[in-house]
Amino acid sequence: MIQSGRIAYRNGAGQETGYETFDLIAAQGRRLLRALCVMEDIGLIREVSIGMDDHFRPRDGQCRIWQGGEESLMRFDIAPDQARCGNDILPLAAPLPYLGLHPLSGDALIIHQRGTDAPGDYRSIAAVTNSISPNGEEDPHMQAMEIAVAYIGPGEIDVAAGRFAAWHYRLRWREDWPPADLWVRAGDGLFLMMRWAMVEAWFELTHWHESPQGG
Predict the structure, then answer these.
(1) pTM (two decimals)
(2) For residue range 58-80, what is the model confidence (pLDDT) as tens digits?
């Protein structure tokens, strides 16, 4: 199965300032996310791929960033006891649940590690990321972090792609940042919308389709 979609990046007035296209592929007991993020307002292009097992736990990943004529390229290999990026090795106390490389379609994947139990309770999810910054381009290097994730509850939401039964989550990347509100499609976690008080921008799914593998 292949889920493909497009996410609009919008400013406070609702004008599109960039976009993300993504493919989420499930086949042969594995999953793969491929995403292209184009942030026209700050001149940033990000290309990401994340290989996962069938439970959305990361096995490897790549993040390429172009901005201001410069390129940052990071490749990650995730083993049960360590994460490697180039010559850097980060020991892991347990298999890593989540690799955060900043596409919105990738942000939505963390809900598979949080679940829908205990509404309102924040649960810390261990993660490795390439950057702890709002746009994911500052001080790029492999670093461990804990992401606090709360399931808020079910509901329905309207986005440009249509009306969906949704699950509402809140994500807190740092204690000194407000949480972001994330809505995903109920059942499979397809990204629908995100709003975050940290930035003026907001993000919504504008197009999506599903096809069988190879279809």
Answers:
(1) 0.93
(2) 999 999 999 999 999 999 999 99
